[in-house]
Design brief:
This protein is mainly β. About 10% of the residues lie in helices and about 20% in strands.
């Protein structure tokens, strides 16, 4: 799967922002991270690329919230180098073309596929702190 750099992600998000047609993928409000609803067919989301820069390096679990947002906040920044974005894949809806971020939260006793709508406004090219 091809790695999406910040500019490619921004283009994908900007294109997605212009789509204004009804689709079953948007009945699920996902401005912030949510568990992928059981009613959303996973086959609807077609992989486009990944934000994982190097499959051999364990990315950080640190989150980027300079404005005091939380992981699931609708206005939380999408910062590709930070958790959970650094473990995401990007996909688009097979029917309408809207872009989504997808990753799997894996806890000690569960696996939870999660999604977030990819939008241009919250995208931030924030470097990791040294």
């Amino acid at each position: 799967m091809n790695i999406l750099d910040f500019n490619a992600l921004l283009v994908l998000a900007a294109q997605s922002d212009t789509i204004d047609i009804p689709c079953e993928c948007v009945i699920h409000r996902a401005d912030g991270w949510i568990s992928r609803p059981a009613t959303l067919d996973p086959a609807l989301l077609v992989p486009v690329g990944t934000l994982r820069e190097d499959p051999f390096v364990e990315p950080t679990f640190a989150e980027y919230h300079p404005g005091g947002t939380r992981y699931d906040s609708p206005d939380a920044p999408i910062a590709p180098r930070w958790y959970p974005y650094n473990r995401c894949d990007a996909a688009h809806c097979r029917n309408c073309g809207r872009a989504w971020l997808c990753y799997t939260e894996a806890g000690g006793y569960f696996v939870d596929p999660r999604i977030r709508a990819l939008r241009a406004a919250p995208l931030v090219d924030a470097p990791l702190e040294a």
